[in-house]
Please model this.
Amino acid sequence: MKLSTKGRYAVMAMVDLAAQSDGKPIALSDIADRQEISLSYLEQLFAKLRRGGLVRSVRGPGGGYLPSRPPTEIRVSDIILAVDEPIRTTRCTPGQPLGCRSNKSRCATHDLWEELGNQIYLYLSSVTVADVVERRVLGTSNLLSGGSGPIAAAE
Model:
């Protein structure tokens, strides 16, 4: 599965917003500078995040954006889905019984990739913005620098 720039940037921006807001609105230009994301791109993402009920805007001097809920209640999967980023690992159209092959059958590995997509969704649904802000998602990724574990062993 490849998560596009749209999904990654939306999560980065929401984590930045949660980390910086402290109850005060944050200007998108500040997030754009800190995260090195185009301001116009962030404006498009935040319009979708606002429609998805994840942020609220404050107008006027000192205005900007605030999370609409506490960061402990905003899941990473909510952010990705709010910006229309599908969590898909197969080429087949979701919800269709037909496969993507020329004869409309499913490939031999379809179920494998479909279940991987389900697991990714479950994981992203289990992680909140607060978890990311407070760095509680390290898990086993620290094995990369330690030189042990399945990833290091495969190198």
Q: What stands out?
A: The first strand starts at residue 55 and ends at 58.
